[in-house]
Specification:
226 residues, alpha/beta, Glutaredoxin, five-stranded mixed sheet, two-stranded antiparallel ribbon, 8 helices, 32% helix, electron transport, redox-active center, Thioredoxin_domain, transport, Thioredoxin domain-containing protein
Length: 226
């Protein structure tokens, strides 16, 4: 008779890695980043999702958490990050799975894990660092510094323009970005408009364009051509 397989072995295999179409897929038991979550925590679905989420956050502090399912440091740190999220319901925590978004992380120059970036309103990115359980103080300090209530002038800035351009240039991503028009200083704009042919500026009378000199008798200003 063929020996029966131990059910505990079967349950262990099904709970962790199991083949699907020739590829290894992460089982539910290994999705540790989904075990402890809060309403202000969610996983990013795409580069466009990340960019839109930052732009639509208003003046709210946004923490972008770059992690990998196989990263031991990420897994060990996750419960503490979840505690910070629970204590700071006004802070948005966005999770970026490195294994699902390698190309996006490459464009954003994320090469070490776990890695965090903080964004706040019109200031855009205000902090960027890597930390572990041993250096969790860096995370605490950044959260304390950038989370207090304050008024930010202007709309949320989101990703840096260089990052947006890098994402748009990445052929592996479905990401569109319309470059912002270049702002010209007002003095330069007036000069350009005045010098353009057919511009709105009316030509001065011929007499007014002649250089003026002081009269010899009464000190009045008279055209030098007289």
């Amino acid at each position: 008779r063929r020996p029966l397989l131990d059910r505990s072995v079967l349950s262990f295999q099904s709970a962790f890695l199991f083949p699907m179409n020739g590829n290894l897929t992460i089982g539910k038991a290994m999705r540790w980043w989904e075990k402890v979550t809060h309403p202000n925590m969610r996983e990013v679905e795409s580069a466009q999702d990340l960019a839109y989420s930052l732009l639509n956050a208003g003046d709210k502090l946004v923490v972008v958490d770059f992690f990998s399912p196989g990263c031991g440091g990420c897994r060990a740190l996750h419960p503490k990050i979840a505690q910070f999220a629970e204590r700071n319901p006004d802070v948005l925590f966005l999770q970026v799975n490195y294994e699902k978004h390698k190309s996006m992380c490459y464009s954003l120059h994320v090469h070490v894990l776990p890695f965090f970036r903080f964004y706040r309103g019109a200031q855009g990115r205000v902090s960027s660092f890597s930390c572990t359980n041993a250096t969790i103080k860096k995370f605490k300090d950044a959260l304390a510094k950038h989370s207090p209530d304050r008024c930010s002038l202007g709309p949320a800035r989101g990703l840096e323009e260089a990052e947006l351009l890098a994402l748009a240039a990445n052929r592996d991503l479905e990401f569109t970005y319309n470059e912002k028009p270049t702002l010209v200083p007002i003095a330069e704009a007036i000069q350009m408009e005045a010098a353009s042919i057919g511009g709105p500026w009316m030509p001065l009378p011929a007499a007014a364009t002649q250089p003026l000199t002081l009269g010899s008798e009464n000190g009045s200003l008279i055209p030098s051509g007289r």
